[in-house]
Each structure stands twice: as C-alpha cells, then as structure tokens.
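Before a colleague's protein record goes any further, I have to sign it off. My question to you is simply how this chain folds and whether the tokens agree. I do not need a full report, just your reasoning and any doubts. This is what I was given:
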Amino acid sequence: MTTVSEQHEFLQDFCMLIQFATRLGFKVSAGELLRPQEMQIIYYNTGRSKTLNSLHKDKMAGDLNFFRGGQYINGIGTSEAEEILRPLGVFWESLDTKNRWGGNFDKDFSRKDPWLDLGHFERQS
C-alpha cells in the first residue's frame, strides 16, 4: 500500500473515532497530526516522548483532546482518565489491526514511570 493510501485509511479511521467520541458525549479538539523531526527531538529530550521515530512525522498519528462536562479528561489523574477514555481506545483498535492507542503503550504499572499517552492514536504500517 502506498504512503498516501495508508494516510488516507488512517484519516478515515480518525474521523470515525471523532464521531464515535462525540456520540459518547465528548467534545473533541485537535492536538498534533504532523510533527516535524525537530519538534520530536525536543519532545524526546524533555521526556514528552519515548521515541525519536514518531509516526506523527509520517502523518500516521494524531493527538486529540477530550472534554466532558467542561472537564479536560486527558488532564485528570492517569487511572481515572484511562478508564474514561478506554472505550475510545477499544473502538480505535477495533477499526484496524494496524491501529494502536497510546493508552496501551505501557501496561506495566510496576514501573516508576509508566508510559501512557491517552490522547494519542496511531496507525502502524
């Protein structure tokens, strides 16, 4: 599949995710879709990312901000936000086997610094 075809499929699923979130009562705003490598380096060096090879650079990942009842859900305690947003992650990953939700990045909670990115949705090619 070509890069453009993969990007097209990713965006089709992304649109369905936003519509699904809206049906569940979330207000959704956009975060990042395209991220230049220079910005990725900054995120990596400051601990906001665990990789230098983000799918954002290929337009195959997007970040969304979720609000409900005037509250920014991504910004509340990690376990509470994860519980609230999990239906979105399940839906996202059900759309295609290549889709991965940032809430499933690191499920080892025994780690001192578990890595979850609850507003992140990506498509691996």
